[in-house]
Design goal:
The chain has 366 residues and is an alpha+beta fold. It is built from 8 helices and 20 strands.
Length: 366
Amino acid sequence: MSEAKKTPYYDKHIEAGARIAEFAGYLMPIQYKSINSEHLKVRNSVGMFDLSHMGEFRVSGNNAIDFLQKMTVNDVSELAKNQVHYTCMCYPTGGIVDDLLIYNRGDHYLMVVNAACLEKDFEWLKDHLEGAVKLENLSDQTGLLAIQGPNAEKVLSNMTDYNLSELAFYWSDETEIAGEKVLFSRTGYTGEDGFEIYHRPEIADKLWEAALDAGKELEIEPIGLGARDSLRMEMKYMLYGNDIDSTTNPVEAGLSWIVKLDKGDFIGKDAIAEVKENKPDRKLICFELENKGIPRHGYNIYSEGNDVGYVSSGTYSPVLEKGIGLGYVPRNRSKSGREIEIEIRGKRLPATIVKPPFYKDGSLKK
């Protein structure tokens, strides 16, 4: 068992009083004050996240686009320079290797993958290399700081001369932030407006202090992984290993919108097309508990007295002030408005299937 890694922001987390735990091989901040207060800080104003545990791969060469078209389900050829899209890699069975972002950097592509899948993803890509393609793992050379919330643009505008109003959702660019040349983008995993700053690890302290200073009047705070999870849950953003994995087809997970079956051949295409044509046996649903209780991963879902599925992710929603969750149930029992039950500590608590997202008032600019 290898020793857990530290991100370039580790000392800053300790200074800020974070509760640290190992996550995906890294020592990461789970929370600073409380998950609920940090969650509401991002919903109502602005927060900053250390995401340096994420994986970054550089793909270049004359056949880079052909390689990525084969390896991922979305259409990379549609990406303009500096544009970003969400996609996933699949096995021949249609199961998901990982979900990720791809940045078109002009002379190369940047893949941003989940921390827990970093090594597996890199090996999967390496095993399928062909033609003039260069694959590089830049993860250890890349720090990542995210600023998220309705006031994110106000904070970042204090750190750069870049006209942020011109950067649309899911686009990126290179600029100077806090006097340092960085790559930044406008994506996010919270449902709020926000930016991600990719940088050399050695300038982490400078960026951290600059962000705190730039957001001082707005009382910006560092946010831990606990709130990151509850924020993404309120938006029905999926977490690999919980809501999607090697046994999950993109269609049943509600990810058909990123699968471009008409773009040419890619790994998993036939299996995905078959499920899409015949319709999936099960579907990923969103549900809200009617009474007090917090659903957790693995809890059983009941419908009309029958055990029909399981909770893939669950948490307490600080905005809705109730337990919410995602889970898989048979397609014929997945309609919004349907009443189900979640077994929590031996008791079956009533819940209702709802349309996503749970939280509909985010500041995200599309």
